Amino acid sequence: MNGTPFSLATLRKPNGAAFVAIVLGEDAIDLKTAHAAYAKGRLTTNETMIGLLEDWDANFAVLQEIVAFLEKNGWPAGAEKVAKLHALPPVLKPGKMFYAAQNFQEHVNEMLRAGMTPAGGPQFTGEKSSSKPYLFLKASSTLAGAFDDIAIPADLKRIDWEAEIALAISKPGKRIKVERALDHVAGFMTTNDVSARDLQIRADRPGLRSDWLNGKSHDKFAPMGPFLVPRAFVKDHMNLFIRLSVNGEIKQDGNTSQFIYTPEEQIEYASHILTLDTGDIFSCGTCGGVGQGTNTFLKPGDVMETEVEGLGKMRNKFVAEAV
């Protein structure tokens, strides 16, 4: 891909409104200001990420032109260091958020050992020939910024981490073939599927067992960002490290090459069930090393750092819920 790599972010100044920024190194340039300085090229919008995703291929070409102009002529007035701004989730209001369950062999194994998979009956062991992707939905209201504090609900004790890579859908589609799936992807993000293991298995409803709403969709249980990295700048999404630490201690250290079902296979599977829309998010599964595997869980004061190679690093502190 020709041109200087860049990222996009949705940021906010203190007491200010959210804005989309082009991120170059440590600097954030308001896209509206940068577009006005360039004074050429048509974007569907310069104000929202979902607006940019709606005609991504055309918008991405103009964004590259804007970046080339900035590098030649310098940053316009008002550019700031990213670190001084509040990073919001890159895509603020996705319509649907798909999450892959047990999509790394190590994670399959640790959840079997931890009793999170029924002991009786057939068990999924990671063999693709006998199964299909397993996806669940998470409410978009769970989104949090990459550096936001996350409140632990007062009645919960088993809060867990799941470092993951996410992707944003640009082009809508139904019954998308796996070989064309990436044509529908604008870019990738770092994320975490924070989980309440207390509630994920319902002891009072053993016949139903899993409770995905209770276990996954508490407020701010989906920190994401700080950047959306365009797909063109991600050399190989199937060979990126995924790492997570708690209070500086590495807990997860995997690689996207270990996926059981690739992001493309997940897109194909989901799109055969329902239409994918612009702005939908896929969070593609976590590697081994979650807290459930060692009966270790998050508590107020803990700091969780989540990183996917080349996509940015999040730092979220857990705090007690204000009651």
Roughly how much helix do the residues carry, as a percent range?
A: 10-25%
Poorly predicted ranges: none
CATH architecture of the largest domain: Alpha-Beta Complex
Q: How are strands sequenced across the largest beta sheet?
A: 7-6-18-11-12-15
Which structural class should the secondary elements be placed in? alpha+beta
Number of DSSP-assigned strands:
20
Overall body shape: globular
**Name given to the CATH homologous superfamily of the largest domain:** Fumarylacetoacetase-like, C-terminal domain
For the record, the count of structural domains works out to 2
Number of helices: 7
Major pleated sheet: 6 strands, mixed
Radius of gyration over all CA atoms, rounded: 20 Å
* CATH top level class name of the largest domain: Alpha Beta
Key words describing this protein structure:
single chain; six-stranded mixed sheet; 18% helix; five-stranded antiparallel sheet; alpha+beta; 323 residues; Fumarylacetoacetate hydrolase, domain 2
Can you walk through the features of this model?
- By secondary structure, the protein is an alpha+beta fold.
- It folds into 2 domains: 7-88, no CATH class; 97-320, Fumarylacetoacetase-like, C-terminal domain (Fumarylacetoacetate hydrolase, domain 2, Alpha-Beta Complex), CATH 3.90.850.10.
- The chain has 7 helices and 20 strands.
- It has helices at 31-38, 49-53, 56-73, 105-113, 197-200, 212-216, 263-271; strands at 7-12, 18-24, 27-30, 80-81, 86-88, 97-100, 135-137, 143-144, 150-152, 159-160, 163-169, 185-192, 195-196, 222-223, 229-230, 241-246, 249-255, 281-283, 303-308, 312-320.
- A 6-stranded mixed β-sheet has the order 7-6-18-11-12-15.
- The model has no long low-confidence stretch (mean pLDDT 94).
